[in-house]
Amino acid sequence: MDDAERKMQFLFALRSKGVTDARVLGAMERIDRGRFVRGIFAERAYEDMPLPIACGQTISQPSVVGLMTQALDVQPRDKVLEIGTGSGYQAAILSLLARRVYTVDRHPRLVREARRIFEEMDLFNVTAFAADGSHGLEDQAPFDRILVTAAAEDPPGPLLAGLRIGGIMVVPVGQSDRVQSLIKVTRSERGFDYEELRSVRFVPLLEGLDKD
Ligand code: SAH
């Protein structure tokens, strides 16, 4: 299969799973997932499946990335926070849709590797930090959009507090690592509205920075 065919299949799989937003599909067409997957799994980068990355973490399934990005409804002027940089793939897609993206991970090594890819791809509006994202990013708050790509028991309070009125947060929540629900939180003048989108499976949101 040549590159063009692989790309067609990749986009077809996204559409068939419900990713229909033209801007999201356009961004996912431009960001080559192959750059974010290394070693023996690199050849599977265009398949619709999660894959292992360094530090025992995973790069999410492309259709889940697409559906989460679509639910986040990112606008061109938005300042976006992502918790869980991982490979950097999701942040790279957000960078094409938003004005500014901040992404944090508790593994400094993942942050270093993602930063290098952002530089190589000339994605200058993404900033990656090593931090425990469950505390939010107070210096840069409030955010128009917040995307959490690790599962929490509940949407973390500091993140809710850092969401602008009118803002949207998408977060997987669940007590176990088997059953989690993807939740869309919308903040209005009156408070927070919660909408359950679908079931998902993410690595857990853990406390504190890791040494690696
Ligand atoms: N969005 C990533 C996939 C994320 S995997 C991608 O596109 O590849 C989930 C990531 O969340 C892991 O890298 C893990 O280290 C990170 N994580 C877990 N708990 C965290 C926390 N409290 N703060 C920041 N990152 C966290």
TrEMBL record:
<comment type="function">
    <text>Catalyzes the methyl esterification of L-isoaspartyl residues in peptides and proteins that result from spontaneous decomposition of normal L-aspartyl and L-asparaginyl residues. It plays a role in the repair and/or degradation of damaged proteins.</text>
</comment>
<keyword id="KW-0808">Transferase</keyword>
<protein>
    <recommendedName>
        <fullName>Protein-L-isoaspartate O-methyltransferase</fullName>
        <ecNumber>2.1.1.77</ecNumber>
    </recommendedName>
</protein>
<keyword id="KW-0489">Methyltransferase</keyword>
<dbReference type="InterPro" id="IPR000682">
    <property type="entry name" value="PCMT"/>
</dbReference>
<keyword id="KW-0456">Lyase</keyword>
<dbReference type="GO" id="GO:0004719">
    <property type="term" value="F:protein-L-isoaspartate (D-aspartate) O-methyltransferase activity"/>
</dbReference>
<dbReference type="GO" id="GO:0032259">
    <property type="term" value="P:methylation"/>
</dbReference>
<dbReference type="GO" id="GO:0016829">
    <property type="term" value="F:lyase activity"/>
</dbReference>
<dbReference type="InterPro" id="IPR029063">
    <property type="entry name" value="SAM-dependent_MTases_sf"/>
</dbReference>
<dbReference type="GO" id="GO:0005737">
    <property type="term" value="C:cytoplasm"/>
</dbReference>
<comment type="similarity">
    <text>Belongs to the methyltransferase superfamily. L-isoaspartyl/D-aspartyl protein methyltransferase family.</text>
</comment>
<keyword id="KW-0949">S-adenosyl-L-methionine</keyword>
<dbReference type="GO" id="GO:0030091">
    <property type="term" value="P:protein repair"/>
</dbReference>
<feature type="active site">
    <location>
        <position position="60"/>
    </location>
</feature>
<dbReference type="Pfam" id="PF01135">
    <property type="entry name" value="PCMT"/>
</dbReference>
<keyword id="KW-0963">Cytoplasm</keyword>
